[in-house]
Design brief:
By secondary structure, the chain is mainly β. Helix content is 7%, strand content 42%. The strands form 3 sheets. Strands 1, 3, 5, 6, 7, 8, 9, 10, 11, 12, 13 and 14 form a 12-stranded mixed beta sheet that branches. Strands 2-21-22-23-20-24-19-18 form an 8-stranded mixed beta sheet.
Amino acid sequence: MQRSKLGAALVLLVTLFVHSVAALPNGSAASICERRASLNSSRQSSLKHNSAATRGVPLPARFREVDGRGLLVKTWINGRGAFTFAIDTGAGAIILSRRVVAEAHVGIARERTVQISGLSGATGGVGQKASIQTLAIGSPQNFLPARGLVIVADALPSGVDGILDPTEAYSPFGYSIDMPNGEMCAFDPQRTPLHAGAAPQDGAIVRWLREAGGRRPFVMLDGGKRALLDTGSGFGLAMSESAARTIGIAEVLRQDGRRTCQTYDLAGGRVSARRMKPATIYVGSLMLRGVPTDFLLNVEAGAPILLGRDALRPFHLTFDPLSQLIQIRPS
């Protein structure tokens, strides 16, 4: 991950491609580094909220999956909308388009810049930190706390007005994503937490692993490698050749695979992927059979393993930020 000369205050991942040139699912990763334009500039005041945290747990919201764009949910910013946001658990931020900024009168902290570098290693994107007053999904009055990082960025996929990282949007609440049934729900982790010893039938509860300075949801695979649960990526189990060898599925690399897919990440870099023979992996005690597997080419060294929508589609996922546990079970 590249850092600015001033040092990076935050590193996160945006897992959406701008567009795809072949038939494989779209997905990408971009590293975003936040830095101060002036070390002497004062920090912006905390985000304003319309008492969202005091309204109780938000209501469930429906989403739909659209090929090439992801899991889409109707979203209102500062009472304006509806906008179309993509649900991306691997983003690490709430990301707004310029259209949303203009129509919702979003405040921008101009002294704070955001550098975006892609999974490819490209560093062609720059955004700005922003603040919003309210965020609602599903209906105009279904407010979320939205206390996490908010940034403005260009080059979002066509038909997408923004990216919603539910960890950043729901915090301090936990949330669940029912992939087959197209519903996202919130819960209070202080009242109804996940428990490590209470795994559901045919499912598993695993540790929510985090990287330094971030809250993106990583899980441990057999072989000791971490994988990012990434609803913003259309891949299945996606990894580089070196990562495949580390987790013991290098035999899939000997398959011819399907034709190569070329895509462009948010920083403008090109990433190629080849769909390989399905793999079998373990996440905790849960064995995933026949997982669609993608071999990533032209990615920067150390790029994370991804479990994208093609791998997660059969499951109901629950994220408990307080207990730092994740439940994965068939829906």
